[in-house]
Sequence to fold (366 residues):
Amino acid sequence: MFSSVDYAFMSYALRLAEKGLYSTTPNPRVGCVLTLDDRIIGSGWHEKAGQSHAEINALASTSEAACGATAYITLEPCSHYGRTPPCVNALIDAGITKVIIAMEDPNPMVSGRGCVLLEQAGITVQTGLLQAQAQALNIGFMMRMMHKKPWIRLKTAASLDGKTALNNGISQWITGEAARQDGHRWRARSCAIMTGIGTVKSDNPQLSVRHAETARQPKKIIVDSHLNIPLNAKLLQSGGEVLIFTAHDESVEKKEALSRMGAQVIVMPNEKGAVDLKKMMTVLAAMEINEVLVEAGRELNGALIEAGLVDEMIFYLAPHLLGDDARGMIKLPELTSLEQKKELKIQDVRMIGQDIRVIAKFPQSC
Fold:
C-alpha cells in the first residue's frame, strides 16, 4: 500500500512533529511534508497553540505552486474552526491531489471528518502510515480526547534495591546528573507536574523545568488533602500556574493567602475524606492537560496506581544499595498471593549516564 518513498517522507514529517515536543500543548504535535514528483517542495510543523498548523506552515514554505502535490501529514487535518481556521480548506484550495496521513484525529470535532471532506473534494486519501509512531508522539492528546483523562506518567528514582530515600528522608541525590537532566526533559514535554504534600514538606521542590530547551513551564499540581502546604514553599515562589487539590477547605484565610499568591485551590473530597483522584483527572482533562508527570512519594504513587490511573512508569535505578530501613517507591496494600501483583509491560531499557532507565506501561494503556 505504501512505498519506501512514502515511508521516508512520513518519517521526515514525524521528525518535524517532534520539534513541537515541548511547545504545542494543549494541541497535538504535527508535522507536514509536501512533495511533487518525489521531491520535497515544502515542509512545516505546528509550533504553538494558536499559531499556524503544520499544513499551513508547509504551504507557506514552498516557493512553487503546490497544485498536484502530495501532502504527508502525521495527523488528520482539522476540519473545524478552533484557534485557527480549518486546514482541510487550505489543502483543497492549494490544489493538493493526494494526502497520506499517519493517524486519524481522535478529537470528536474531527474524527474522520477531515478525510471525508478531502475525498469529497476529489483528493486521494490514505491513512495509517507509521501510525504507531504518530500515536506515541501524541499519547496524551489521544488519552484526553478518547478517555477524558490525561496520560499519567509516574517517574521515580531508586537504588537497585528499590529504595527512594533514607529512613530520615534524605534523597538528594540517588541518581547521577545525566539521569536528572533526562528527568527534566520528561518534565518539559509534560503539561503538568504532580506531587503530594509529603514531598512538598520533605523536599521543598520547585517543580520547574531546568536543563531543557523550553520557555514553557508546566503547571504544578499538588495533592494536599488537608491544605497543609506551607506558604513559603518554593513551588509557590518559582512562577508558573499552581493547582492545589484538597479535601478540606475550612481555612478560608489559608485559601485566600494561596489565591493571592496565584495558586488555585480546588476542593474535591471523596467519601474517605481524601482527594478524589478520579474526579481530579476529569478536571485536569477539562483544563486541556494532556500529559502529567508524577514525581511523588510512596503514598501518592500507591494511591494513583491502586486507583488504576497510572498509564506509564519511568524508573531510574542507581547502582547503590540502601537497605531495609530506607523508604520504598510505592505503597500498596499487602498482597497474599502472587496473582494480585501489578503487571507492567517493559517498553524500553537503557543506560542514562551511570544509571539504568526502565520505561514500562500498565497493560490497559498499551
In short: The first helix runs from residue 4 to 18. The mean pLDDT is 93. The CA atoms of residues 155 and 183 lie 8 Å apart. The domain at 142-220+282-365 is CATH 3.40.430.10 (Dihydrofolate Reductase, subunit A).
